[in-house]
């Protein structure tokens, strides 16, 4: 038998088919609750459009699974649009998602703040409005690794917006109300990521950067890119402490306030390690007298098989808290 | 100079060839200060454009470029998709119902394209984006007779200048100072667009075969 | 700053503390629903013991997260006992778990078929019986990579037993009934795994084996061990087809029968790839006229950061189906 | 031969030393045909045993070995924990209330230990497990005067023989034919147990310091 040359060891068939085949797999797995818009990379709740409920659409490049198709379900998104790996989806696809979920009460788009995502969702929103659909957008900018607040990327904190806006929409709130609640959520999220190893985009077959055994990247986004700063590898507790300190610096918490946290795996970091990090996160918050009301530990917004994690803190008020539970 | 619809169509086909040839290189540029997909995005988009326009003959330039624009918008994705798409869409409005385009009309199309890119992307020249190629090309087109080698040179030099710039828009902006010393991938793909245009005109400024 | 020497790039503090700190992290994340037995590596539902409900206990070595502590919840397990990484927990700990969940109706132990697990759970069962607690055991042997049926290992199929026995127990069924249903489930599960890369046990700091770029291991278990057979790397569809063929050979399905599937990630394989595999699994089952009633795609039983996946098929009858939904 | 309680206690302390020294090696053996934790399991368990018995003086052998057994059961885990634990627990029943143990009594303890291992693990000699060391050692103890070098030799040869065997029990069994050419890790740790015993007796067969 010939010894095959292998570009990359991935459970795929052809790099160009990964998104399509993934979406087929999602539908094969959950035909009772999801459908795919024919010929498009859009996953929609089977019940959509739901009359009297604001429709919620999110999306972005693929490679972040379970984001976003994994959050298409009751009390969360009504549709998710999948772009190519790490590439924003196009306006025509987003437009179809909007049309598929508009139950007459309008549609809220939850967009991560990347040039590409913002522009494609913008164009789709314009097109939908031209067709008479009410559309609002909320832009998530939670990644504190970027200094300039306006330029901050949207990362794992986006999941909080899905959850809270989803809960508000399920209550039958108006587009304006849902959009305000989503906006408030987005303004109260701060995230920071660290990567221990890069990932390989199927189309290129090569890792996005290289790291030595003793190096890590602080401030990594979710697109296999380099972080903002390269540092020496350190133990989980120390890393968690630095990340939490950075996050709390941005947030201005007063003792007694409440928070929710996502300790998110970027792809190949075992859940065991995420819990070890989360342990320290919880301890540090307690020390600062911040009440950890709700924790999510696992993979929510990944970067293919990148190793590392991100920590997201959401500052809660009574309204946000009620929608999170 | 007069650009016929056929010459314009050839421009787009040439552009696609260049995108295919430079696919890996563009993605490598994007890997350094972005997410490594620019070449794949452009190659996917222009391939689809060519699939769509190849076997058609267009009566006038407006519908040709509208087709180009809509295809780019729906196939490229990322930041480049809406930007290139908007650029060609705006240009197509200027070139509506023209069967040949003179230099002035061509310049108006580029101007409209730039305005479109700016509105869509909220960037300005100097932000280390594709605009830093489109801008100088526009200046050249409006001030000098369109000539193959000079057009190429203008686009190339503009592209190379992005190397020294610090990125202020797009993914490269996250890298801040670290973006310096890298050519902007979108600037490079725009250089390819105008290099392809140069390949579609004769030295005399007329469309060649 | 000194360039540190790094043994392994893991988000941990000290290899000897990983299990303890992970369990602390789990409690920090879910204090509203879980508790840890003081001084022990046992995670228990906060409501336990529940009067009138058979208690369900599982466990095994750590490093398989979310198994098993992640399945301690309503309609699933009442307690999970965590051993050291890839090492069965000890009888004294299992005994305390049994005591903590016995609500007077007895306790069912769900055990994966490894010498160590079987012996430690056996000893614990004997001790508990000596203290007057009714205990039954179900041994899961789903891994078809091992020829001899009696010796087959318990792998991801165990999750089906948790789910179905958990649902039956929640209905208030007797220990005998729950145990019979669990046993029937165990007898109708078949699994097979493949690994693309090894994992590193924190205590040793070294990968369990090495694989070239173009090699994979077929028939891998969940303890970082080598597979039964080394093969050339192949595409997802081909791999899925070989695995499904092997599974169906064992199962003797007749057209029209119903099944549930777990397409399980071993640790670092992106969800995208699991869905690509699952797509083919669903297609092949359909081709054989097997009705895929329910799919689970994700990480359920991992092997630290091993790359690869396992496929589990559960043959359903009406009873099993009703408990799975 | 008479083994005093102190000599027996020294046996266990020596065993721990050997487990610590051979921790990595045992785990390597287990890596090849198991899951690579045997050394860590044994080192963790015996360290805890020594922590528990070190500062105590035991009046008689039964309570010493009961303590050893219970600690191994609760600290080793894996397959080795219940097996070694059961072995010492069964032996402790034979050695109950003895302040010194003669060779016959010692042999009875080993016999009981083997019976315990067999009941617990459902393996037999030849299955490539720790039994393949305990068995030959038992035969030796019941047939020849206990002597340091011979004891070591018996245990060592028995351990080495596991190399040729095909595993039928424990994780190594999953490897089938591939388990051949590897020493069984549990057989090796058992060899260390008896090597430690040899270190606790004099050549004359009496306990030494
Ligand atoms: N706001 C913007 N305005 C103008 N050009 C931009 C803007 N954002 C990005 N670009 C251009 O797009 C290029 C990147 O395109 P591409 O890699 O395809 O998209 P993405 O950044 O979404 O991965 C950049 O090199 C830059 O030239
Ligand atoms: N059923 C059994 N009977 C006797 N000895 C066994 C049995 N199963 C395993 N062993 C012994 O235990 C050793 C492995 O112990 P260890 O690595 O600590 O446990 P695990 O296999 O659970 O990781 C094997 O080398 C073998 O000697
Ligand atoms: Mg991109
Ligand atoms: Mg890019
Ligand atoms: Mg083990
Ligand atoms: Mg072992």
Can you describe what's shown?
The complex is a heterotetramer, with two copies of chain A (325 residues) and two copies of chain B (209 residues). In chain A, 32% of the residues lie in helices and 24% in strands. With 325 residues, chain A is an alpha/beta fold. The model of chain A has no long low-confidence stretch (mean pLDDT 95). A six-stranded mixed β-sheet of chain A has the order 1-2-4-3-5-6, sandwiched between helices. Chain A folds into two domains: 172 residues, Rossmann fold (3-Layer(aba) Sandwich), CATH 3.40.50.10440; 136 residues, 2-Layer Sandwich (Hypothetical Protein Tm841, Chain: A,domain 3), CATH 3.30.1180.20. Chain A is built from eight helices and twelve strands. With 209 residues, chain B is mostly helical. Chain B has one domain: DhaL domain (Serine Threonine Protein Phosphatase 5, Tetratricopeptide repeat), CATH 1.25.40. Chain B is built from nine helices and two strands. A two-stranded antiparallel sheet of chain B has the order 1-2. The two termini of chain B are 14 Å apart. The C terminus of chain B is likely disordered. Chains in contact: A-B, A-C, C-D.
The ordered string of helix (H) and strand (E) elements of chain A is: HEEEEHEHEHHEEEHEHEEH
CATH topology of chain B: Serine Threonine Protein Phosphatase 5, Tetratricopeptide repeat
At the first level of CATH, the class of the largest domain in chain A is: Alpha Beta
Spell out the CATH superfamily of the largest domain in chain A.
Dihydroxyacetone kinase, domain 1
Helix percent of chain B reads 55-70%
Mean pLDDT of chain B: 94
């Amino acid at each position: 038998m010939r010894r095959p040359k292998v570009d990359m060891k991935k459970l795929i068939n052809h790099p160009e088919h990964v998104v399509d085949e993934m979406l087929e797999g999602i539908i094969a797995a959950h035909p009772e609750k999801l459908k795919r818009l024919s010929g498009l990379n859009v996953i929609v709740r089977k019940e959509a459009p739901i009359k009297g409920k604001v429709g919620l659409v999110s999306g972005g490049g693929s490679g972040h699974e379970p984001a976003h198709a994994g959050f298409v379900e009751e009390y969360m998104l009504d549709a998710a649009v999948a772009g190519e790996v790490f590439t924003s989806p196009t306006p025509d696809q987003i437009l179809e998602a909007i049309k598929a979920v508009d139950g007459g009460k309008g549609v809220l788009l939850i967009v991560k703040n990347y040039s590409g995502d913002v522009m494609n969702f913008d164009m789709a929103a314009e097109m939908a409005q031209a067709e008479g659909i009410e559309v609002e957008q909320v832009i998530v900018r939670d990644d504190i690794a970027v200094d300039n607040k306006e330029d901050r990327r949207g990362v794992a904190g986006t999941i909080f917006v899905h959850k809270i806006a989803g809960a508000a929409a399920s209550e039958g709130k108006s587009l304006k109300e849902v959009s305000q609640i989503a906006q408030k959520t987005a303004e109260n999220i701060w995230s920071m990521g660290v990567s221990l190893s890069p990932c390989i985009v199927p189309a290129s077959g090569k890792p996005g950067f290289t790291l030595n055994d003793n190096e890590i990247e602080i401030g990594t986004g979710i697109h296999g890119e380099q972080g903002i700063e390269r540092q020496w590898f350190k133990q989980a507790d120390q890393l968690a402490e630095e990340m939490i300190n950075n996050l709390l610096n941005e947030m201005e918490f007063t003792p007694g306030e409440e928070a929710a946290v996502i300790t998110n795996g970027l792809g190949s970091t075992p859940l065991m390690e995420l819990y070890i990090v989360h342990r320290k996160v919880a301890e540090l918050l307690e020390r600062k007298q911040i009440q950890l009301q709700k924790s999510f530990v696992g993979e929510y917004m990944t970067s293919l098989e990148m190793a590392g994690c991100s920590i997201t803190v959401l500052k809660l008020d009574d309204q946000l808290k009620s929608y999170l539970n | 100079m007069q650009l016929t619809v056929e010459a314009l169509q050839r421009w787009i086909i040439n552009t696609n060839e260049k995108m295919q040839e430079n696919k890996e290189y563009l993605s490598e540029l994007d890997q350094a200060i972005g997410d490594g997909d620019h070449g794949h995005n452009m190659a996917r988009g222009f391939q689809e454009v060519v699939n769509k326009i190849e076997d058609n003959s267009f009566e006038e330039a407006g519908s040709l470029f509208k087709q180009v624009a809509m295809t780019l918008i729906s196939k490229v994705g990322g930041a480049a998709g809406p930007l290139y798409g908007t650029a060609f869409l705006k240009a197509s409005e200027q070139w509506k119902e023209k069967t040949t385009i003179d230099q002035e009309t061509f310049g108006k199309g580029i101007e409209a394209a730039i305005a479109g890119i700016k509105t869509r992307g909220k960037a300005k020249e100097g932000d280390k984006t594709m605009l830093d190629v489109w801008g100088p090309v526009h200046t050249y087109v409006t001030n000098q007779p369109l000539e193959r080698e000079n057009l190429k040179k203008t686009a190339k030099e503009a592209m190379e200048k992005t190397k020294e710039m610090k990125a202020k828009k797009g993914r490269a902006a996250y890298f801040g100072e670290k973006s310096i010393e890298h050519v902007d991938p979108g600037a490079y793909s725009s250089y390819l667009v105008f290099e392809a245009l140069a390949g579609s005109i004769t030295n005399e400024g007329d469309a060649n075969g």
